[in-house]
Amino acid sequence: MKRPIFGAALFAAIFGLTASFAGDAHSFSWPAKEWDKAKSIFTFSQNRKDRFCQSLVLRGVQTASATDKGKIIAVITEKQGDGDWFESPLGNALIISHDDSLISVYGNLTPQSAAALSLKTCLEDEEALGQTGMSSWSESEEGGELEFQIADAGSKTFINPIILMPRNLKPPKIELDGISIENQFGRAYNLAALRSAPAGVYKIYKKRQADVNVYKSELYVNGAEIEKISKETLKCQDGRLALAGKELYTSQEFYPAGDREFLGHILLPHGSDTVTLVASDIFDSASTLNFTVSGY
């Protein structure tokens, strides 16, 4: 029978393996045959309790299922952990390694399901894992939420599960509202009303949308790409999760206080400048805005 794993030992169980993420070389099934697609919440890298969500959280799930055949490497039966890596949000959970060394994780299972899984060593594709419960950071008082994650042990990253699974969901349209820029001194400007600003480096933000996640942001000045951020993976930076753009951004930088969401940096030169923002979902459906600002 497998021994339950906690905290740092759990981190070692996940990332002590050898793995190499090769883009979309591997495909997974969805971790449940049925769920409430209209009410599924928290997509990968969204703000969740002031940190990046490394899961897909599916609502209305009664029975979880394995997304591919693999070997059980850990069964978590108690909330305990350290840092951002597989701590209490998972509740009772199962961790499976696959032929290509990618790791899949299934959280918020019932204690009975976790206990039954601890007696097994291997699972087949789409094999039932058991019932969902109330052991994770569930946002629903009714239960039925499944926490699902995919990790790359070799690079110590979490992978956006949707890029490896059938894309049969239609996300809401991204709205580019409340666009603001902020200089190095923390002074913010409403970009829609801005006609001129000192030349220099600025952060660009949009107003957050509930349950809508920008998968890719691209920023251009006078047609030249300045920064692109794609939410394919979350990396580990000093024990915390970070998104990669021109640099690594923490959740505090990406989702500062208030209702803002970071899109990237621009360098505003002297003269009349056209600033272009492109925000896309995972299906490459994009929203675009252009602004003209004079740098002085």
Characterization of the model:
The chain has helices spanning 7-15, 111-117, 251-254, and strands spanning 56-58, 63-65, 70-76, 93-97, 102-107, 122-123, 128-131, 146-152, 157-159, 180-182, 188-190, 196-197, 200-207, 216-221, 224-230, 233-237, 240-244, 248-250, 260-268, 271-280, 286-295. The chain is mainly β and 296 residues long. The strands form four sheets. Strands 1, 3, 4, 5, 6, 8, 9, 16, 17 and 18 form a ten-stranded antiparallel β-sheet that branches. The longest helix is centred in the first third of the chain and has 9 residues, at 7-15. The model is unreliable at 1-11, 17-25 and 80-87 (pLDDT under 50).
Summarize the structure.
This protein is mainly beta. It has helices at 7-15, 111-117, 251-254, and strands at residues 56-58, 63-65, 70-76, 93-97, 102-107, 122-123, 128-131, 146-152, 157-159, 180-182, 188-190, 196-197, 200-207, 216-221, 224-230, 233-237, 240-244, 248-250, 260-268, 271-280, 286-295. Strands 1, 3, 4, 5, 6, 8, 9, 16, 17 and 18 form a ten-stranded antiparallel sheet that branches. A five-stranded mixed sheet has the order 12-21-20-14-15, with no helix packed on it.
